[in-house]
Amino acid sequence: MADLKLSTILVSIQSVQKQIEYFEGLLASETVKDKDDIQELLLSYDQAAENLKEVYISKRSSGSNYPEYESLIKKNL
Questions:
Q1: Angle at 53 between CA 52 and CA 57, to 5 degrees
Q2: Count of C-beta atoms within a 10 Å radius of residue 9
Q3: Upper half-sphere CA count for residue 39 (Cβ side, 13 Å)
Q4: Does residue 49 form part of some domain?
Q5: Is 4 within 8 Å of 55 (Cβ atoms)?
Q6: How far apart, in whole angstroms, are the C-alpha atoms of residue 10 and residue 3?
Q7: Average pLDDT over the chain, rounded to whole?
Q8: Residue 40 falls within a domain, yes or no?
């Protein structure tokens, strides 16, 4: 596996989270026609998010200037 910088992983986590929120919104929509396809995409993004979480937590050292994982995935209310 390539040695990714923590900043690249951070941006990836945020991007994947935005896509998850988007697909969850689509599933909640009454006009969506291809729920099965959306659920399949959502599953793929969920798996990617879990993998990125593991890598981020393992690379981030305590006392780091990088934020905690949980603060990266907070939903904008």
A1: 115
A2: 20
A3: 5
A4: yes
A5: yes
A6: 14
A7: 90
A8: yes
pLDDT at 76: 52
Q: Which residues of 33-59 are buried (b: 16+ CB within 10 A; e: fewer)?
A: eeeeebeebbeebeebbeebbebbeee
What's the token pair of residue 27? 């599933």
Q: By residue range, what is the domain housing residue 21?
A: 6-57
The whole-angstrom separation of Cα 31 and Cα 46 is 23
For residue 10, tell me if it sits in a domain.
yes
| Angle at which helices 6-28 and 35-59 cross, to 10° | 160
Give the dihedral sign, CA 26/32/36/37.
Answer: negative
pLDDT tens per residue across span 30-49? 888 889 999 999 999 999 99
Separation of alpha carbons 28 and 68, rounded Å: 29
CA of residue 22 relative to chain centroid, distance: 11
Number of independent structural domains in the chain: 1
